[in-house]
């Protein structure tokens, strides 16, 4: 085996999206030495940098608001399954801290502006500008990471396994992509901030790094996962005509702003038939919109490429130009003229409500292992409100960083013992078969299985078929990576990716099969309707090569907020 590199740190942060960068800053500011690693470039590899739109927070800067009102709306959307209030409670403080760091939240008359988004009872979604929120958040955090002493960074480092000693997580094993070298990282606390899993699906809004690595790392290390059945589909992802150089979900803010009309293939508005009273304004929650579009397509009333039309043709050209700004020109390059034509949109896998279970300190059941951001599960229950995901990344990242530093302060030595990492490092470095199966084809097959049989609408028959086919793919993948392990050996990277994707896909499909009701983003066509006995979170654990599930009753609801809960307008600036 190639001799592994050995690195030591107090806090290892895996993933440098919003959650990982905030965690690193907070841990370092609390006195810990931090190593921030990412399989991609630092601060540019995941969803945060792609997020274009809004960040939900009860600042009350324009309309009176209170975090308890935000929590109330979050719980409603989560259909009774949310397990944490932290997201809403600490959001105002984090968003103000980002403001102080110079993110540049949009302002009017000196006050931070908030937009109204579906499911939020009042305007609560702050932004930088309608296409630049995620990049601005990432840039601000990257700048803070660079300014904060005590943070070392390592990009191109794919973490393949967590390393345990005496039932604690003591660091990780990784593959250095550019050299092919195995790397052992000793850490007193490890934060998984690896983002979501939407790469499991054929049509997704994510970067290629989002195959659910963190869920698989945590599960194999013995940490439970929660709510794995709840994958959120974004209803109006771009479908046609072909669009180059733009985010597939960017239609949403324009629909808020201009009331874009959603039409079926016959040119008829249809959402009112599925329980919406949106009447031109965009108030439909994501799960209902996804349902409405898929049902129209199934009924033979879809648009030519299998979605729905989104039309802004009723808007005067000047209004379009004012709202879309330079985006109009980018659309024109793609031969899209919104004054004369609709675009086609369709649901696209976008976000995962489930993830690694953690307490309010973002600590998992396994000492030494913490989690943050989209990698953490449970805060959004069965369905996430618009804007809550970036907030979750920031709030949970900050809390995880603080808790990790507190753990480090209590420890006197590294718990890492080299033999504990041997098996994981051997997988990274070992000689593999030069010609394994076609991993790119396996990836596509997995994405098709998930899209066709574990999509937003599920049945027992389809889920059982998916579980068998996922098992077959796992058999095909085998126990040892292929490839020779040299620099940028994509066969080896694919093997590690598929190992995680198949494990996570199995967790999603089995959780979905067990939940014999429909709730939020999980819709069972054979079990329509929500059942009181299913107001439980499913918790998954890895035992002896199988995933075991238990049900857990979510914490009680706080009482709904008083009619006009507010945070003092002046204090919110
Ligand atoms: C196109 C798009 C638009 C969105 N718009 C919004 C929005 O407007 N508002 C909102 O609230 N939410 C939005 N979301 C969701 C939101 O952006 C994410 O939920 C959030 O940014 C996740 O942050 P994170 O830090 O947890 O993960 P990410 O930002 O995804 O970062 C995870 C990082 O982990 C790294 N990583 C993964 N696996 C490994 C590994 N094995 N080893 C090392 N590194 C690893 C990745 O390379 C990545 O850099 C959007 C998402 C997408 C995809």
Features:
single chain, 573 residues, alpha/beta, 7-stranded mixed beta sheet, 4-stranded antiparallel beta sheet, 14 helices, 32% helix, globular, binds flavin-adenine dinucleotide
Describe this structure in words.
The protein is an alpha/beta fold and 573 residues long. 32% of the residues lie in helices and 19% in strands. The chain has helices spanning 18-29, 67-77, 86-100, 133-147, 213-220, 251-258, 286-298, 317-324, 327-333, 388-410, 422-429, 439-453, 460-477, 490-514; strands at 5-14, 34-37, 55-56, 107-108, 111-112, 125-126, 151-154, 157-165, 168-176, 182-192, 225-226, 231-240, 261-263, 308-311, 343-352, 355-356, 369-371, 457-458, 523-524, 537-543, 546-552. The strands form six sheets. Strands 1, 2, 7, 8, 9, 10 and 17 form a seven-stranded mixed β-sheet that branches. The chain has a four-stranded antiparallel β-sheet with strand order 16-11-20-21, with helices on one face. A four-stranded antiparallel β-sheet has the order 12-15-14-13, sandwiched between helices. The model is unreliable at 563-573 (pLDDT under 50). Flavin-adenine dinucleotide binds at residues 14-20, 37-40, 45-48, 50-55, 133-134, 158-159, 193-195, 205-206, 209-210, 213, 247, 249, 351, 373-375, 387-390, 393.
């Amino acid at each position: 085996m190639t001799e592994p590199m050995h690195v030591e740190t107090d806090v290892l942060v895996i993933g440098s999206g919003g959650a990982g960068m905030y965690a690193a800053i907070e841990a370092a500011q609390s006195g810990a030495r931090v190593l921030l690693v990412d399989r991609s470039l630092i601060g540019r590899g995941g969803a945060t940098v792609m997020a274009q739109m809004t960040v939900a927070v009860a600042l009350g800067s324009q309309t009176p608001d209170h975090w308890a009102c935000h929590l109330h709306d979050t719980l409603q959307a989560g259909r009774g399954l949310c397990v944490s209030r932290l997201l809403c409670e600490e959001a105002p403080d984090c968003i103000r801290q980002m403001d102080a760091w110079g993110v540049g939240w949009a302002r009017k008359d000196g006050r931070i502006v908030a937009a109204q988004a579906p499911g939020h009872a009042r305007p609560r979604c702050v932004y930088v500008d309608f296409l630049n929120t995620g990049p601005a958040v990432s840039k601000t955090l990257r700048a803070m990471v660079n300014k904060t002493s005590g943070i070392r960074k390592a990009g191109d480092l794919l973490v393949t396994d967590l390393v345990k000693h005496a039932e604690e997580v003591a660091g990780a094993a990784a593959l250095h992509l550019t050299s092919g070298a195995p790397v052992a990282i000793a850490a007193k606390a490890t934060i998984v901030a690896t983002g979501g899993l939407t790469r499991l699906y054929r049509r997704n809004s994510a970067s290629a790094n989002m195959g659910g690595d963190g869920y698989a790392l945590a599960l194999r290390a013995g940490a439970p996962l929660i709510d794995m059945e709840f994958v959120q589909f974004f209803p109006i992802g771009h479908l046609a005509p072909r669009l180059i150089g733009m985010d597939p979900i960017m239609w949403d803010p324009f629909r808020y702003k201009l009331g874009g009309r959603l039409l079926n293939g016959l040119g008829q508005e249809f959402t009112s038939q599925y329980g919406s009273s949106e009447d031109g304004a965009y108030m439909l929650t994501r799960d209902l919109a996804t349902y409405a579009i898929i049902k129209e397509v199934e009924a033979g009333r879809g648009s030519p490429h299998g979605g729905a039309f989104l039309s802004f043709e009723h808007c005067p050209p000047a209004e379009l130009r004012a709202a879309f700004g330079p985006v109009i020109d980018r659309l024109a390059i793609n031969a899209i003229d919104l004054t004369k034509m609709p675009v086609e949109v369709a649901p696209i896998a976008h976000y995962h409500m489930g993830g690694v279970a953690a307490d309010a300190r973002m600590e998992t059941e396994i000492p030494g292992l913490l989690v943050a951001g989209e990698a953490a599960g449970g805060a959004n229950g069965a369905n996430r409100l618009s804007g809550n995901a970036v907030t979750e990344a920031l709030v949970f990242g900050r809390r995880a960083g603080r808790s990790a530093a507190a753990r480090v302060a209590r420890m006197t030595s590294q718990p890492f013992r080299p033999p504990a990492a041997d098996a994981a490092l051997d997988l990274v470095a070992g000689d593999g078969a030069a010609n394994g199966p076609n991993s790119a084809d396996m990836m596509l097959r997995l994405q098709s299985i998930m899209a066709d049989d574990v999509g937003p609408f599920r049945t027992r028959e389809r889920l059982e078929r998916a579980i068998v086919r996922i098992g077959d793919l796992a058999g095909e993948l085998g126990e040892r990576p292929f490839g020779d392990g040299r620099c940028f050996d994509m066969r080896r990277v694919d093997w590690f990716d598929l190992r995680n994707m198949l494990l996570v896909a199995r967790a999603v499909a089995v959780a979905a099969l067990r939940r014999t009701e429909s709730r939020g983003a999980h819709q069972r066509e054979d079990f329509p309707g929500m059942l009181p006995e299913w107001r439980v979170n499913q918790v998954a654990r890895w035992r002896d090569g199988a995933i075991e599930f238990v049900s857990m009753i979510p914490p009680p609801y706080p009482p709904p907020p008083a009619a006009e809960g507010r945070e003092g307008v002046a204090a919110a600036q």
